[in-house]
Amino acid sequence: MISLILEDRCTGCNNCVTACPTHVLDASDAGAPTIARLDQCQTCYLCELYCPEDAIFVAPDQRGPEKIDAATALASGHVGRMRHDQGWNKPEDRQPLEVYWRLGPLLGQGSEIAGRRYAREHPAEPTGPVRQTGSRPA
């Protein structure tokens, strides 16, 4: 589950907001995005993968939020690890990106499930349409 956005590293590009299939993040005009709907996070790591500054820490716990401060996250060595392990830090090598997007249909199903669950748990809040995955965010 997404745990932390490192504001001192974040450039405000909002790639993570665009990449998130379940609309967990809200864009901000002044800096780092906001983790707005944590209960919709599917721990798919797309936000971390699309962050060129390694400013996002996704904890592997899928059952609940993990409280962690920036210093502890950085000291763990896990900030940006998924992106680097998948080879996304090498723009000339697109193969890991192409392989990862084969998960699109599965992420789409997770997105739909999360959207229905969120709508049940928060009936007064509009969730908007659930974005289909399987193609790269713009």
Q: Could you explain the architecture of this structure?
A:
There is one protein chain. The relative contact order is 0.20. The chain has helices at residues 15-19, 46-49, 70-76, 81-85, 95-100, 104-121; strands at 2-5, 25-26, 34-35, 56-58. It contains six helices and four strands; from the N terminus they run βαββαβαααα. Strand 2 (25-26) and strand 3 form a beta hairpin. The chain is mainly α and 138 residues long. The strands form two sheets. Strands 1-4 form a two-stranded antiparallel ribbon. A two-stranded antiparallel sheet has the order 2-3. Residues 127-138 have low confidence and may be disordered. It has one domain: 2-Layer Sandwich (Alpha-Beta Plaits).
Write a brief caption for the model.
The chain has 138 residues and is mostly helical. It has helices spanning 15-19, 46-49, 70-76, 81-85, 95-100, 104-121, and strands at residues 2-5, 25-26, 34-35, 56-58. The longest helix has 18 residues, at 104-121.
